[in-house]
Specification:
Blueprint (H helix, E strand, L loop, with lengths): L1 H4 L4 E5 L4 H11 L4 E6 L2 H13 L3 E6 L5 H15 L4 E4 L16 H26 L6 E5 L6 H4 L13 H18 L6 E5 L17 H12 L10 E3 L2 E2 L3
């Protein structure tokens, strides 16, 4: 199996059992990539893999809870055993708090929970997968961020980002800042790392109130996952280009 898989681009998409993550996996699978469906729910993971395979994709399940160090370590071992390397990591898994959510009344446990998943989880998975990414000829990391994480947009008069967000938006700003530091550390390598803004997509995170489709939301992450070797790194992008920090 290793010899067969090694001819394909290997990607791991976290939180890929549904929503934008699934569409990212589907889009990359349609390109002939071998797609690891990272998800903690076993049944949803199996269903997603089966659906992707039925569509012709080379998909495999990766049991993965980004908040659990042992789970992440096991996931890295699974990918190493299967493929020997990882070409692309898409850190898509994330959770949202309430919305709107004022910082003066927010439950601190909500803040901790969101930081643990949306920021620390990304760091945990990225660091576990980096040894495998370093074995790739064209390694890429894509982090799922948001326009609400842009401090510039948040402080621009007239820009409507959906009201006050005491936890979710700050975790995306934190993620943006972390990505900048990864880009600085990895600047002497072939690894390109960027953040993607999917836009206001109808998902269960917002009660399906978004105005964009899942396919539209997945497009920028797919583009960043397939960047050429001379592509950008350490930036935040949406469909229209660079988004200010």
């Amino acid at each position: 199996m290793l010899a067969v898989v090694s001819e394909k681009t290997i990607v791991l998409v976290t939180g890929a059992n549904k929503g934008i993550g699934y569409e990212i996996a589907a889009g990359l699978g349609a390109r002939g990539w071998s797609v690891g469906v990272g998800a903690r729910d076993e049944q949803r993971r199996q269903d997603a893999v089966a659906k992707l395979r039925a569509a012709g994709a080379d998909a495999f399940g990766v049991p993965l809870d980004v908040t659990d160090g042992a789970s992440v370590t096991t996931a890295a071992r699974l990918i190493e055993k299967r493929a020997g390397r990882l070409d692309v990591l898409v850190n898509n898994a994330g959770i949202a708090g309430g919305w709107p959510e004022e910082p003066t009344t927010i439950d601190l446990e909500t803040v901790r929970r969101l930081v643990e998943t949306n920021v620390i989880g990304v760091i945990r998975v990225t660091n576990a997968m980096l040894p495998l990414l370093r074995r790739s000829a064209h390694p890429r990391i894509v982090n799922q961020s948001s326009h609400v994480g842009s401090l510039t947009l948040q402080t621009t008069p007239g820009v409507d980002l959906g009201g006050i967000s005491g936890a979710y938006a700050p975790t995306k700003a934190y993620l943006n800042a972390v990505t900048v530091q990864y880009a600085k550390e990895l600047s002497g390598t072939d690894i390109l790392i960027n953040n993607a803004c999917p836009g206001y997509v109808a998902t269960d995170l917002n009660g399906f109130s978004g105005t964009r489709t899942l396919e539209q939301g997945a497009a920028i992450a797919i583009r960043l996952a397939t960047l050429p070797d001379d592509g950008p790194t350490g930036r935040l992008f949406d469909d229209n280009g660079v988004v200010p920090w």
